[in-house]
Design a protein that fits this description.
GO molecular function: monoacylglycerol lipase activity
Helix content: 25-40%
Keywords: Hydrolase, Signal
Protein name: Alpha/beta hydrolase
InterPro entries: AB_hydrolase_1 (IPR000073), AB_hydrolase_fold (IPR029058), AB_hydrolase_sf (IPR050266), Epox_hydrolase-like (IPR000639)
Number of strands: 8
CATH architecture of one domain: 3-Layer(aba) Sandwich
Organism: Adhaeribacter swui
Number of helices: 12
Shape: globular
Radius of gyration: 20 Å
Order of helices and strands: HEEEHEHEHEHHHHEHHEHH
Strand order of the largest sheet: 1-2-4-3-5-6-7-8
Length: 337
């Protein structure tokens, strides 16, 4: 009887205190992280390819996650991250898609995450070229491409440059559905760099909270990682790359080319999103009132793209795959299949 009671207590302990089966594990975030967040653990093994860009040697990090059950008829899926993030924030989506039988390839673009942070003339054309080189290295010639936020701008550019590769395109709350040059006052690269140098954990947290209607503790990880970089001796390089990629977004709109997309395209739009790149620089209240209206922007985009579908998620902010992963994955898999 005593042994039985001990066994029951042990099982109860495991149930209440051990991680749930299948639950994604959140890594500890060190207090300080270098430019390439070397001490931060990604959910899957990280690999690298070497690139030469503007006479500069760079390395591009990526995860290549094979499906749990191999299915040669299913295309590879490429996940492209947003500006303030890296491949790790796709953790739940990678797990879901690999469980559905898809190979999932998740790069950190040069200038982001675990990739190099060189000082370059950043362009979506160059990032798309780097991504194509990665796929060529991996022997992938067809893929479904999914882009979130800035990744949506990159995914669009990639699809325009390499339509023969992209079987389907999925844009999750992409930025760039409006031309920021017509909304946001111009800021020099030096001014943007100086703003980045002043970044703190508090300012990151304040900004990231605009992404979600309600902040949850599980989102803290995505604040802590960039905040840890601000405490590093490498932060000047991170800040400069961030300023240069802000300039890329501002100077290189894709909204005028949406009508050129040929492949089936899905837009998944959190309807509570009001993200505008450079929003803090807008002083005109009338401009602020009309900018970043994602419900309207999504409808306009669908009208521009020939073969497209819009899924609106009520009450959802800028990052559906973190806020409502089940609804996001349902829309995703329905379109992919």
């Amino acid at each position: 009887m005593i042994c039985y009671r001990i066994l029951v207590l042990f099982i109860s302990f495991l149930f209440f205190f051990a991680p749930r089966y299948g639950q994604a594990q959140t890594p500890e975030v060190p207090e300080v992280l270098d430019a390439e967040i070397s001490e931060y653990t990604y959910p899957y093994p990280v690999h690298y390819i070497q690139l030469q860009i503007e006479n500069t040697a760079c390395k591009m990090a990526y995860m290549d996650v094979l499906p749990k059950q191999n299915n040669a008829t299913r295309p590879a899926i490429v996940l492209l991250h947003g500006k303030n993030f890296m491949g790790a924030y796709w953790r739940q989506t990678i797990k879901y898609l690999s469980g559905q039988g898809y190979r999932v390839i998740v790069p950190d673009q040069v200038g982001f995450g675990k990739s190099s942070k060189p000082s370059l003339h950043y362009s979506f054309h160059q990032l798309a070229t780097n991504t194509r080189q990665l796929l060529d290295t991996l022997g992938v010639n067809k893929a479904v491409v999914i882009g979130h936020s800035m990744g949506g701008m990159l995914a669009t550019r990639f699809a325009l440059m390499y339509p023969e590769v992209v079987t389907k395109l999925i844009l999750e709350n992409p930025i760039g559905l409006e031309d920021y040059r017509t909304l946001v006052p111009y800021s020099t690269l030096e001014a943007a760099y100086q703003r980045e140098l002043k970044t703190t954990e508090e300012s990151i947290s304040t900004y990231f909270k605009t992404y979600f209607p309600e902040w949850l503790l599980e989102y803290d990880e995505w604040v802590k990682v960039p905040a840890a970089q601000t405490r590093s001796k490498d932060y000047a390089a991170v800040a400069l790359a961030s300023a240069q990629t802000y300039d890329m977004i501002y100077q290189q709109p894709i909204v005028y080319e949406l009508e050129l997309l040929q492949m089936p395209t899905l837009l998944i739009i959190g309807q509570a999103d009001r993200t505008v790149v450079g929003k803090a620089l807008i002083k005109d209240k009338a401009v602020l009132a009309r900018a970043g209206n994602y419900p309207n922007l999504g409808r306009k985009a669908v009208n521009q793209i020939r073969s497209s579908k819009l899924v609106g998620l009520p009450g959802v902010g800028h990052i559906p795959h973190l806020q409502t992963p089940e609804a996001f994955h349902k829309a995703l898999i329905s379109f992919i299949k």
